[in-house]
């Protein structure tokens, strides 16, 4: 397999790869991700295999907007709407109850799902054109440094995935903050690029 590097704005090949069950290296503002159709069990299984990621570790989904999030989450509470309005697109992953339309391999058998709208025009366009949420961990071998450029992704996966979208260097270079709204009022599962104080402020807790 030859890994194609997409440098221009024509994403048609990447869209076809994603829709047909293949994997795409994608830029975000945090780190580069390894995206597969989050509703396709075989594609998600491939993500685990290529990364060497333990299947007991759940994946989150990249979504184009809050409407797509609602298609995979069983409930979008007011707190989630406030956070999405304030910080999406951006470095915040929100964990909510999951719909049964999401394959259990994505959630590692759990009943919650993390969703995020990434702040990168090319990846947002890919998600819109493909019309599916994308299971997207960082595009690295598990326990190796997270990739900040398309070249970093190639260093891990050249010849192992169909394509990488070159969106330049990540502007933040730090993973998203993960906040669970399943616990009340919330619980930070991973402190990342978005400060907790900003979450408290939007939720009226500060």
Set down the secondary structure blueprint.
Blueprint: E1 4-6, H1 12-19, E2 24-26, E3 33-37, H2 41-51, E4 61-62, H3 66-72, H4 78-87, E5 92-97, H5 104-107, E6 112-116, H6 121-130, E7 134-135, H7 150-157, E8 163-165, E9 177-180, E10 187-190, H8 196-202
Parallel strand pairs: 1-8, 2-8, 4-6, 5-9
Antiparallel strand pairs: 2-3, 3-7, 4-7, 5-6, 9-10
Helix pairs in contact: 1-6
Description:
By secondary structure, the chain is an alpha/beta fold. The protein contains 8 helices and 10 strands. It has helices at residues 12-19, 41-51, 66-72, 78-87, 104-107, 121-130, 150-157, 196-202; strands at 4-6, 24-26, 33-37, 61-62, 92-97, 112-116, 134-135, 163-165, 177-180, 187-190. The radius of gyration is 16 Å and the shape is globular. The mean pLDDT is 97.
């Amino acid at each position: 397999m030859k890994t194609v590097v997409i440098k221009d704005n024509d994403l048609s090949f990447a869209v076809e790869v994603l829709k047909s069950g293949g994997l795409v290296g994608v830029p975000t503002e945090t780190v580069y991700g390894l995206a597969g159709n989050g509703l396709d069990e075989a594609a998600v299984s491939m993500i685990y295999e290529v990364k060497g990621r333990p299947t007991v570790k759940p994946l989150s989904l990249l979504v184009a907007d809050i409407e797509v999030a609602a298609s995979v989450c069983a409930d979008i509470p007011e707190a989630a709407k406030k956070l999405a309005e304030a910080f999406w697109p951006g470095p915040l992953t929100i964990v909510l109850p999951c719909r049964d339309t999401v394959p259990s391999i994505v959630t590692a058998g759990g009943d919650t799902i993390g969703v995020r709208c990434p702040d990168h025009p090319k990846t947002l366009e890919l998600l819109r054109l493909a019309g599916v949420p994308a299971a997207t961990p960082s595009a690295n071998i598990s326990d190796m440094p997270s990739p900040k450029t398309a070249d970093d992704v190639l260093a891990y996966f050249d010849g192992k995935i169909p394509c990488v979208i070159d969106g330049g260097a990540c502007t933040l270079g730090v993973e998203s903050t993960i906040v669970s709204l399943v616990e009340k009022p919330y619980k930070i599962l991973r402190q990342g690029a978005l400060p907790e104080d900003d979450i408290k402020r939007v939720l009226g807790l500060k």
